[in-house]
Amino acid sequence: MKNLLIFTLVMLCLNATAQISPDLIRKKIDAVQKIMIPYCKSELATVDTTNNNPDVRKVVTLSSYKKYIDQYFTYLAYNRGSLPTGSSAALELTNNSTLLNFSLAKKIESKQPEGPLSIFTGGVKANISDGISQLFSGNNLSTGTTVFGNFAFLPARTKYRKNVKVEVSRWVNGEKVTRTNPYQDMRRDRQLNATQFCEYVSTEYVNKYNALVNRWEEVKSKLRYLSSGDDTVQLNKMKDEIEKELSDAGLVKQPATKLAAAMKKEYEEKKYDLETENDAWIWVHFQWFSGGVTYTRQSYSTYDENRSLAERLNDENFDEVGFNITAQWFTQKFREYGLFGSTYFNIAYEPRATNNFIVLKNKDITSVILRSPSPADTVYSFQTSQKARNTTGKTYRSGWQHKISSTFTAMLGEKQQTGINLRGEWIPSDIVSPVYNAHIGALLRFVNNNYDPSDKNSSAKLNLEFFIEFNDMSDVGGSGKSVWQNKLIGVSTTVPFNKIFFK
């Protein structure tokens, strides 16, 4: 066993030595250059300022365009920072329980740059207790468990406008000194960025790290011929510094393909900023569709005073199946703001299986049982209280409920520090009277005390919504209250998309 351990350690040392062989590093440098040269030729041709191809003049380059669409569409459709691919899981805390939210997602996009983009998700939401979530009870879903499948579909991805003729005045000490064309400035800066990057890849990168490898070999050679009594501290320190620099550059362990991919990513990110963060942008517009299907095992309690005492309170289960389809429009302006700087609008239709008991509101049901022994000189009172739906005198009926709703959200003016959020719902059904809901909200942006103006990625604002909500204005739930008595006034931080239109 001891010999095996020694052999393993020796092999590991030999392997580590082989990994940092100077010849292998030189070959890796050459391999990176061979990968990057064709890429650079393509980029230089694409960003050439003399290229008057209509596609180049109208839109940003394809790589930036796809990244831009992915980021915006994901925020709009899924409220996340990047397109969901693969699986994800999260714990959601509610007032009464903890939910496990597990989903699988897949992005499907056309090979054509202007083609459609789709995202499909499927998963389950279930209550979790003591680290365990019971999805099934016998052959049925456990109470409160939801199985869902959703989609979001963007028909076309060319919904934005870049004005190639707009000019912007530049001011110094309050005086206008020049007028520039941001679009032409961007093309010039983009070409300069590509030229500098490709010069680095073809010449500077190779010269820098080959020189470092040569220096490393020289130091190692000196150490090899020095006797143990000589002062080698400085040389060993120099050797360690060189090896660390080579390791930090990825030349020790990472393959050439990964190094080239990292270089491309760094270049693409800078190009993306140049193409999207300039005054030539006028607006961006998206129109997309989303929808899905859900299946939930619902549980609720009912009370019927016409039944015997033992049967008045009952626990009922109902399998709720629902569908939804929504058409959505979003516009964000960067110039020419007008009254509405940015707007979001949707129309949704949601049919759902329901019954006339589940739509009722819970009430506090108190049961009192009086008992007296024999002889009846003492009376005992037993009282229980429970929340349940009062179904006295009602006949159970099931059917379909149809929710038709619309939402309009807008941020006002150039600064977009205030906005409105309006929502209305009409819910007709064959089994109960129509339900009407309304929501009126005022959106406000406040300065975040933790904002760092030097960090453009930090959150500059805190978004709040002050709202008044009128639910069940026709009192289908049987609360006995007026529309005003049923109102809800509050403050919400869960405004659309977590950030009001990405600010």
Report on the structure:
This protein is 29% helix and 38% strand. β2 and β3 (117-128) form a beta hairpin. The two termini are 62 Å apart. It contains 7 helices and 19 strands. The strands form 3 sheets. It has a 15-stranded mixed β-sheet that branches. A two-stranded antiparallel ribbon has the order 4-5. Strands 8-9 form a two-stranded antiparallel sheet. The protein has 503 residues and is of the alpha+beta class. It has a domain at 27-54 and 166-276. The chain has helices at 2-19, 22-46, 54-58, 62-78, 182-225, 233-248, 256-276; strands at residues 86-93, 98-109, 117-128, 136-137, 140-141, 146-154, 160-162, 168-172, 175-180, 281-303, 313-333, 340-355, 363-371, 380-390, 398-412, 418-427, 435-447, 461-470, 487-492. α2 packs antiparallel against α5 and α5 packs antiparallel against α7.
